[in-house]
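PROTEIN DATA CARD
Card holder: Phosphate transport system permease protein PstA
Chain length: 295
Origin: Clostridium algifaecis
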Amino acid sequence: MNAKIKDRIWTMVLYGISGFVIVLLVALISYILIKGNGFYKPSFLFGNAKFAQAGGGIGPQLFNSFYMLVVALVISVPFGVGAGIYLSEYAKEGILLSIIRLCIETMASLPSIVVGLFGLLIFVSMTNWGFTLFAGALSISVLNLPALTRVSENAISDASKSVKEASLGLGATRWQTISKIVLPSAIPQILTGIILAAGRIFGEAAALLYTAGMSAPKLDFTTVSLSNSASPFSLFRPAETLAVYIWKLNSEGMVPDAAQIANKSSAVLIVMVLLFNVLARILGKRIYESYTGKK
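Structure generated from the sequence above:
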């Protein structure tokens, strides 16, 4: 068998594998969307669930998911990007750097349920906060920090190769080079990593079961406070997210149409995660084109 025939065979095999993955993904998404038909209705998206009664909606859970997303990103992005800058621009090869990388790899491999138990011990019990949105956001940040750090480090390292020496050669300081030249060039990749992390935050359930709780009281938006538990914007109130709500429906079934609500909620969740991924690709490409002058 000559080289051309081998090349064609393996090319067909790889195309077949790729096609199988695409078909599998499309089938999975289609099944979830078909089972959750009607998930797009405003009465379901913005309504309140009714305990022990048929019907209701996912308004509080959807709000809690987005609020958790914002708070977790506010916590994790500065630390993740800062760690990426340190590792790519300031850290020197040696024992300390090896230890830091080992810690990052270890954190990246932690199961989310283990992080949830850690959050229960530290952010719930030791602080005496109880089940709060802030405890959940801190636990999610622990999960996302390794990925954000690696994405930021790789993005800054790739961006600095072509512009770092030129900037320093023109007399710019190290920090000026990083803040004015390197970071803007690395923003597309960093932003892509942030949006992908947002998709993980939105779909996470295991870590939040033990930290944010499983209750979603009726939201009263007339009160705006970060500490008053009566306010929907409070960081110190229980916050049942959409992913946790789906788990609770399938495990407890406290409402007559629990399966139907769970199917619709799953459809909303999968659509949001898909939107996060698509948005990451589009935004990253647009920003990259704006910085490189391509159209």
